[in-house]
Design a protein that fits this description.
Elements lengths: L1 H50 L5 H6 L2 H15 L7 H29 L8
Length: 123
């Protein structure tokens, strides 16, 4: 019985450490994702110079800004000592993350349309 009560006493501390480390991992992953899309935008800019076709690289760089805002809001929540973001801030952060994901997908599809060869061959 004493062992069981000791387990219950130490459980919240372990859960707190695990939740905090998960939050830090999520923040780092969101920043890496944002950096990846910025590098993708830089590559699109170089393709625009070489191919002389409009790749809309500015859109590709700006679109993932919601991911960065999500990471900042998550970081703010961690510094406040919360295990989770407050509900209102969480809704804003997840909405921006989702919108940013859709806009990034649209930017990637536009870029793909520019660099992919035309079907049907040369006529």
């Amino acid at each position: 019985m004493i062992l069981f009560s000791l387990f219950l006493v130490s459980l919240p501390e372990e859960i707190t450490k695990m939740a905090t480390s998960n939050s830090w991992i999520m923040i780092v992953a969101a920043i890496f994702l944002w950096i990846t899309f910025v590098l993708f935008g830089i590559i699109a800019k170089r393709y625009e110079k070489v191919l002389r076709k409009k790749t809309e690289w500015q859109f590709i760089i700006i679109a993932p800004s919601g991911v960065l805002v999500y990471a900042v809001l998550q970081l703010f929540s961690v510094f406040q000592g919360n295990l989770k973001m407050p509900v209102n801030i969480g809704r804003i952060a997840y909405s921006l993350f989702f919108i940013s994901g859709i806009l990034s997908l649209l930017g990637a599809l536009r870029f793909r349309r520019v660099v992919s060869p035309k079907r049907g061959g040369v006529r």
